[in-house]
Amino acid sequence: MKFSFKILLCMVIVMALALGFSGYYFVNYVFETSLEREVGQALDENSILSFAFETAALSVPAKYNVMPDTTVEEITSNLEKSGQDSGRLLRISDEEKNILYAGDGFDVDDELLAQTDESVKTYQVIESKGKYYIHTGTAVTALNRVLYLETMRDVSEVFEERAMGFSLYRRVMFIMLIVGTVIMHFISSLLTKPIRILTNATKRMSAGDYSYRAEQVSRDELGQLTRDFNSMAETLEQNIERLEEELKAREEFMGDFAHELKTPLTAIIGYADMLRSHRLDEEQSIMSSNYIYTEGKRLEAMSLRLLDIIVAGKKEAQLQKVSAESVFDYLKDMYAANKNMRFSFDYDKGEFLAEINLIKTVLVNLIDNACKASESGSKIEVNGYALDDGYRFAVKDYGIGIPKEEINKITKAFYMVDKSRARKNNGAGLGLALCVEILKIHGSELEIESEPGSGSCFGFVLKSSIADKDIGEAGNEISDKDITKIIEEKEENTNED
Ligand code: ADP
What we know:
Blueprint: H1 3-58, H2 69-82, E1 89-93, E2 99-102, H3 111-115, E3 122-128, E4 131-142, E5 145-154, H4 156-191, H5 193-206, H6 221-277, H7 282-314, E6 320-323, H8 324-335, E7 342-347, E8 351-354, H9 356-373, E9 379-386, E10 390-397, H10 404-407, H11 419-424, H12 431-441, E11 447-451, E12 455-463, H13 480-496
Parallel strand pairs: 7-9
Antiparallel strand pairs: 1-2, 1-5, 3-4, 4-5, 6-8, 9-10, 10-12, 11-12
Helix pairs in contact: 1-2, 1-4, 5-6, 6-7, 7-12, 9-12
The structure holds adenosine-5'-diphosphate.
């Protein structure tokens, strides 16, 4: 059953009960008041008749010491006749409660008469032959006799009025219920409109229309529910978009990965096949083996780099205070033997928070890229600037530069602007992706400025104090122990070669 119908049904039941009880109470109250009034009048009348009887008894001739039964009958009959218009009936009984006179139609049992005595006046409401009467009884003392006078007053009208009241009220209630049901139907459907809108919105969303929002039609709790539903839908839509993007990026990554694997694998398989199926002279054998070795090495370097990216993305940086001097000393030592380029290391003294080995990896990658992009003998500037709340590194070259439309893409895994040039330099398009992951867990990002033909500048800022929220969302899925194990395994593999 629909919720609006349930509300309607409840309201109709409540209204019917309220109308029924109030109507019954009202009609009955009017009836009881009228009956009480009639009882009062009947008792008053009884007193007046007793008095009239006693007065009439005074005119009985003095020769009688005791009032004879015939006189009693006569007086009672006269009293009854005098009130014939009011439909009043009388009955009188002697001391032994034997009936001396009873009006025509005075047809009741003697129960009330038995209860009446000199000190007790009695009354009861009785039904006789479809009519209602107030039956009263009282003792009358006249001429040395104690007699019992009973009256019957017709009050059928009061009962008829009650029956009419009930029937009229039933009709009014029926009409009020019909009109009320129509009004309440509108009210219940108005009240449940937000629920219908929300149900529709839920259906649209489950059918895949995540951009659909429910219209807010009230400011009450249901309005609040609509607002909450819409904000939930907003979050859901954003999450779905994010997941779709991630899925797309993962698919692209798998495609690129497979593509990058293909070239060295084709070379390895081709040369290995040549070695096993042809008789080659020594020079050809060495050349083939060499190709297999270098392509294998390239594959190994690619897999290690991928592992680095995965590990960097999962771990949390173990931040320590690092002095700029120690980093620049390391870089100077590392590139001292490289005479192909003109290196300049210029830096402010200062400290920042970082995991030193990871930051060295970033800087070495950036400097290596700068070397690969530059002509032999070209200048490469590695600079460090102390900032108010951190430290900025910048690696600048005067090499080939990067076209504007490529700048956003080069940090994607396996992306190379010039593939053949990158492969010649043993590149696989993974260096910058690793830098980005490392900087992310340091709460930083890579800034790239470049002009084709003029050179490029890669920079990033490390903070001297880092708030928790600035650290990248590194999960705890891989513990530090795991990372050490992976790095150890990697080193072992390298040493074996
Ligand atoms: P790799 O160097 O292994 O190819 P990277 O992720 O480090 O991979 O770089 C991706 C691509 O970005 C490079 O192939 C190159 O085309 C471009 N690139 C990176 N650094 C520079 C630079 N300093 N100057 C010009 N191009 C660059």
